[in-house]
Structures are given as structure tokens and as C-alpha cells.
Amino acid sequence: MVGLLDTRSSPADPLAPVSILVVNDDVDGLFLLTIDLKRAFPEAKVLTARNGMDALALWGTEPIHAVITDNRMPQITGIMLARKIRESDSKVPIVMVTCAAEVREEALRAGVTLFTADNRLEGIMNDLRDLMDRSRLDDAR
User: Taking the model in full, what pTM does it have?
Assistant: First the structure.
């Protein structure tokens, strides 16, 4: 069976490889998150933005199947970014990866789908894959 995140599907196919947007103003954090995602999703296209404004600019340029964001960033926080994304897309998974555990409830109310306060994605990769699969199935219907 060909999975949703399988690269054997054609580019025009709604089951084609995913694009994941990673947003973090910290260069090292952005690098580490990108490496984690490329290991977990080698078939995915990983887009990066150094702040919320750049992320919003990328948002409308191509389909994005998941957003991974920090919270503490200049101009637009990750929570503000989640609210903006939710204005145009209620289904895309938004994952907040931050050391600021105290913002968990606010982030979830803003539309964040998964929240981790250990600043790493390893523990939630399977959940992220499931969320992207479900979101893409809904889009294909």
C-alpha cells in the first residue's frame, strides 16, 4: 500500500510529497528542527522562515501541509502566527516547539495542534505524520 507521505505518487496527485514550514528566529534551533524533520520525513520539502512575517509571506506561495514554529520571535510570536494561519486554514497541523511551557494553553486556544516544551520533535513525529495524513485525506475529498 502506498502511504500518504510516499514519494511514489505523482506531483499532480493530492497524495504527492508534503511541504513543511519551519519557523524559528534562532539559527541553531532552525537548523536542528530542519535536520530532525529531514530525518523523519526524507520525502518532504522543508521550507524555513526566520520570523513570523517571513512565514506568512511563504504561506500563500505554495501548499504547506504542516507548520512547526517556535513561540518567542520578533514581530509576530508563534501564537500570533497560529492565529493568522487559522484565519485561512482550519486544518493544517501547527506544532509549537518551544521552551516556554507556560504558553501551552494559550497556544492550543490559538489553534496549535501539538505542543512540546522540550524544544525537540522526536517525541511527536508519529503524531505529526498522522495529523498530516488526516489533513491531506480531508483535502483530497
Answer: 0.82
